[in-house]
Structures are given as C-alpha cells and as structure tokens.
Amino acid sequence: MTRRVRMTLEQLQAMSNYPAAIVAGAKTNLPAVDDLGPLLAAVRAAGFPEPTREHRFAKEAMGREWRFDLCWPEQMTAFEREGRIWVPLPCKKCRHPRRLLMSRHAIGNGYDEDMAKYNAAAVLGWTLVRATAKTLADGTAAASLVAVLESKRRQAT
C-alpha cells in the first residue's frame, strides 16, 4: 500500500543532496539551448532550415496561445523538450536511494495543460516530436526529428 507523505520544501531539501533552489524547481535537467547543438546539427546535415524558436500557435483557431520550443512551420512540425527534476530520497527501510520526480510538466495542472497543448497541436495538423534530456543526449531525439522532417518532405513532393 502506498502511503502519502507531506513534506515541506526544507524537509525535502534536507533529505537530498540538492540545494533548495533546485528542489524548488529553479533548475532542471533540461539542456541549455547550446546543448541542442547536436540536434540542430543533425537537422542542418539533413538539409532542413533553422527552426523558429518559441513559435506561437492556436490563438486564432482555438482562442488560446501556446508556444513550441522549436518549430518548422512550413513542415507543420514542432519539437518540445520535456523537463523534469529528479531528487534522490533514501528509502527508510533499506536505505536504497529512490528518486522523486518533480516537474510542473509531469504532475497536476501542468500535465493537463501540456496535454491540452499537444491535443490542440494535433487537431490543427501539427506533428510534435517530444524529447527528454536523455533522448537529447543519446541522439534518439535527433534521429526521430530528422525522420519526421524527411517524411514530411517526401509527402510534399
């Protein structure tokens, strides 16, 4: 049976090796814009243009304005980095380190808002490629994005 535990930020910070600012969400494991270099290099190598950053969409069609992290409007393709914070928490029984996921995008209203955004993008005909820091680092995000852009290029001809 799962037991709910309520903790203050100070208690959570005290149990982890992270400073309070990180636990509070001021810093995530998202790569900096410069860390998108390998992904953008793969896109360039495949012959695609530079993306538009923070492209706004859906305002006129749906009355709500959202933004994509990266976007190729001509191909109706967008890219989103998903952010998460992993905080190590020791298990009280076995002392094995567990991890607690903290992210506005992974819980509660943030998750619901992201789903509304992704669904609105689908309704409007956008293809969305999502990635985590891990898939950015191991190259699978770049491979997926290039494959989608190439598929769109073939469909256009």
Summarize the structure in words:
- With 157 residues, the chain is α+β, with helices and mostly antiparallel strands.
- It has a domain at 32-85 and 103-156: Endonuclease, Chain A (3-Layer(aba) Sandwich).
- The chain is 40% helix and 22% strand.
- The protein has 7 helices and 6 strands.
- The chain has helices at 9-15, 20-23, 37-45, 59-62, 108-123, 133-138, 140-156, and strands at residues 52-57, 66-72, 77-81, 85-90, 97-102, 127-131.
- The strands form 2 sheets. Strands 1-2-3-6 form a 4-stranded mixed sheet, sandwiched between helices.
- A hairpin with a 4-residue loop joins strand 2 (66-72) and strand 3.
- The chain is flat and about 60 Å long.
